[in-house]
Structures are given as C-alpha cells and as structure tokens.
Amino acid sequence: MRTTVITYRTTVDTADENQHLIEQVFAELETTGPAGFRYQSFRLDDGITFVHVVEAEDDVDPLPQLPAFQAFQRTIGDRLAADPQRSPAHRVGSYTSQRSVTTGR
Predict the structure, then answer these.
(1) Where is this region: Disordered (predicted)?
(2) Of the N and C termini of the chain, which has fewer Cβ atoms inside 10 Å?
(3) What pLDDT score does 94 carry?
(4) How far from chain centre, in Å, is Cα 31?
(5) Do residues 34 and 62 lie in contact, with contact meaning Cβ atoms separated by under 8 Å?
(6) CB count, 10 Å around CB of 34?
(7) What domains sit in the chain, N to C, each tagged with a CATH number?
(8) Is the sign of the CA dihedral 72, 73, 75, 81 positive or negative?
C-alpha cells in the first residue's frame, strides 16, 4: 500500500470553505466506497493547517475521478496561504480500537 501525506495552510478566510469541500469528498467516498483505499483528513488547532493521509493499494487513487475532489482541486490555489508539502510515508504501526468506550454517569 502506498501512503502519501499532504500538508498545507489555507488563508484564515478560506479555511471553512476548504473544510466544507473536503467534507463533500468524504460524502462522495461514502457513496462510491472504493476498495483498497483509505483517506483521512485533519484540520489542526491553528484552524488553517490541513493534513491529508492517502493510502492506496496498487497505486490506484480514486480521488481524481470524483467530482467532489475535482471541485476541491479546481479552486485550491485560491485558498492556499503556502504551497502544499507532499511526502511519501511508510507505516510503522497502526491501531484501531475494536470496542467502544463510553463515559458519563
């Protein structure tokens, strides 16, 4: 599986729009359900830094074919405060809990 990490900063005025466009990509992924693909996106506490982690088997990345991702890409240059940094990454480990933990009394 190939993993790529993309990090970038948006302008303060466009960060919410950027998040909305990312959410649209996730909504489309939910309906299309591409196999062999994992995608995560994070907005850091500064409010303007975004991190995307893309994992694709056999170098097959379904994102470029999605209309929601095309819409995200179409105006990305207008939202950026700095050029994105794209880096290949190699998994050292991963853990996902198999049980739910609820708190509250």
Answers:
(1) 79-105
(2) C
(3) 83
(4) 16
(5) yes
(6) 15
(7) 2-89 (3.30.70.100)
(8) positive
pLDDT per residue of the chain (105 residues) written in tens, 0 to 9: 889 999 999 999 999 999 999 999 999 999 998 888 899 999 999 999 999 999 988 777 889 999 999 999 999 999 999 999 999 999 898 887 776 555 554
Tokens at 91, concatenated: 């998994």
Q: What is the pLDDT of residue 73?
A: 95
Give me the residue label for tokens 């790529």.
4
List Cβ neighbours of 17 (8 Å cut-off, separation of 6 or more).
Answer: 79
pTM value is 0.85
Residues 6 or more apart in contact with residue 77 via CB below 8 angstroms = none
**Chain position carrying tokens 């950027």:** 18
Query: Strand 85-89's sheet: what is its strand order?
Result: 37-43, 49-56, 2-9, 85-89
C-alpha 59/C-alpha 55 separation (Å) is: 9
Consecutive H or E run containing 32 = helix 15-32
